[in-house]
Predict the structure.
Amino acid sequence: MSVLVSFTPRASESIAEASAWWRDKNPAQFREELEAALSLISAHPDVGESYDLLGLPGIRRRLLRKTKYYLYYRRHPLHPDTALQVVLLWPVLKGDPPPLEEP
């Protein structure tokens, strides 16, 4: 059973930035890998690795291997049994910890 996936404003912004960057490179690859990751976490919410470094409870991340991004998400704070909340898409190559904060 799949759960709903929502996006924080920061997640939507980071996805739009990545999409704009990939537009001139390989937009289909980016879109397909992101859609596959979203489908996977929706069907299997605990598939991502736990990422507790950021002080936000319950953060998980899923690596998008081809495009080199981490998708950070958690169970939705208001609907933990039925929804996930994507909090950020972060380029692996930046190396720094992502700037996550309570939305």
Q: What stands out?
A: The chain has a mean pLDDT of 89. The first helix runs from residue 9 to 22. The first strand starts at residue 4 and ends at 7.
